[in-house]
């Protein structure tokens, strides 16, 4: 009997792997179906529409994380399933050379007017040993562009090592509670324009950021999960120690 395959075991081409190594990121077009994304967005909407809203899905506009649900995969099976997309699981295994496990997830809804996140390297926030972390950022809108606050990346900066981070400089664009890379000309960042279902893999040392959503009526929902190699561990961050397998 032939077992049904849910995805190609090696979804990334050689060119895509080389592009990731050279640039610190790679964009995979249409890695997730519109139907699945619509169902996921509808599910999160329904969860947040409950009365009372479950604690994990609640966001307080006066606190951190107002733009995002933090670690929904720890509470919600749909979010966990989205964290395990076969293309992501197999793509990460190609990039890491071994199986990946998930340590963090964030569902961003970033409604019009919401600030973005200043330029940073993810490793600054999530130390892991050995350093193996890669993010997978999935676009949950028809279009994610400069107007509604897309991600910006600075190609090749994953080769710079960990940079110092300090206070956020531009409060018009960025959430003030985060920290921002110092000593690098971040105007060299380029926008990553994405369509629904596109998946961006990026390295933990890649400088990236996003700006305020300046559209009138377009949200910028996205789901981003952070993964490490299965034999690696998150250090320091007690809240992100648990490793979620992707099988
Ligand atoms: O999506 C964003 O606006 C920022 C996400 C980000 O910087 C990250 O996940 O590390």
Q: How would you characterize this protein structure?
A:
- There is one protein chain.
- The chain is an alpha+beta fold.
- The protein has one domain (15-239): q2cbj1_9rhob like domain (Jelly Rolls, Sandwich), CATH 2.60.120.
- Helices cover 19% and strands 24% of the residues.
- The chain is built from 5 helices and 16 strands.
- The strands form 5 sheets. Strands 1, 2, 3, 5, 12, 14 and 16 form a 7-stranded antiparallel β-sheet that branches. The protein has a 3-stranded antiparallel β-sheet with strand order 10-7-13, with no helix packed on it.
- The chain is globular, with a radius of gyration of 17 Å.
- It starts with 13 loop residues before the first helix and ends with a strand.
- Bound molecules: 2-oxoglutaric acid (AKG).
- 2-oxoglutaric acid is lined by residues 108, 116-117, 122, 135, 151, 208, 210, 222, 224.
